[in-house]
Specification:
191 residues, alpha/beta, Rossmann fold, eight-stranded mixed sheet, 6 helices, 8 strands, globular
Length: 191
């Protein structure tokens, strides 16, 4: 039974109602997101897709603020997307960040050069394959990986293809973010 992802989703929906709680929650992850921005080389010219944004789309908001990139935040949970839209508005980010109820395994109606995928997003293998098929050549796909001792709580990435780079974190639930680069609808292999 996957208890931790459910608790995180519930807390995000509740915290999204109050902008102070949302800001505190977002601030906690700012270093993680900065490292992911560096890992993927995100700039203001990128169009970023945040898969599994949850009720507090802190990744989407922080990426938009730090880089100036246009960000599309998606989640398959309608209730989370309603909360995310309120949160985006409370941060004054409606011009840079758009939230929509879309599953990461479905057709993505936005063009993106970078995708950042939440730890809770699943099924990982299908999301990875779907994003790679729809992304342009050279697109970067970043996934958060759970700590080994919590692997049973999260859907895991496939062993192949291997990511081409990673950045480490010291978070309670995840310890790294991995990078894939799209090459002709597939992922570049690690060298």
């Amino acid at each position: 039974m996957k208890i931790i992802p459910g608790i995180v989703a519930l807390l995000e929906k509740k915290a999204a109602a109050g902008s102070i709680l949302a800001r505190l929650y977002s601030n906690h992850y700012s270093r993680v997101i900065q490292k992911e921005i560096e890992l993927a080389g995100i700039t203001s010219g990128d169009r970023v897709l945040n898969v599994g944004c949850g009720g507090i789309p802190f990744t989407a908001i922080t990426v938009a603020r730090l880089t100036g990139a246009r960000v599309y935040a998606i989640d398959c949970d309608r209730e989370a997307v309603v909360a995310a839209k309120r949160c985006i508005k409370s941060f004054g980010m409606e011009k840079q960040v758009e939230a929509a109820c879309i599953n990461g395994t479905a057709e993505i109606p936005f063009e993106y050069s970078v995708a950042l995928v939440a730890l809770q997003a699943e099924p990982k293998k299908e999301i990875l394959n779907n994003l790679a098929l729809q992304a342009a050549q050279g697109a970067k796909l970043v996934f958060r990986k759970p700590r080994p001792e919590l692997a049973h709580q999260y859907d895991l990435l496939p062993e192949n293809p291997e990511p081409c780079a990673l950045t480490s974190h010291n978070e309670a639930t995840f310890n790294c973010s991995v990078l894939y680069t799209v090459i002709a609808g597939n992922m570049e292999r690690a060298s």
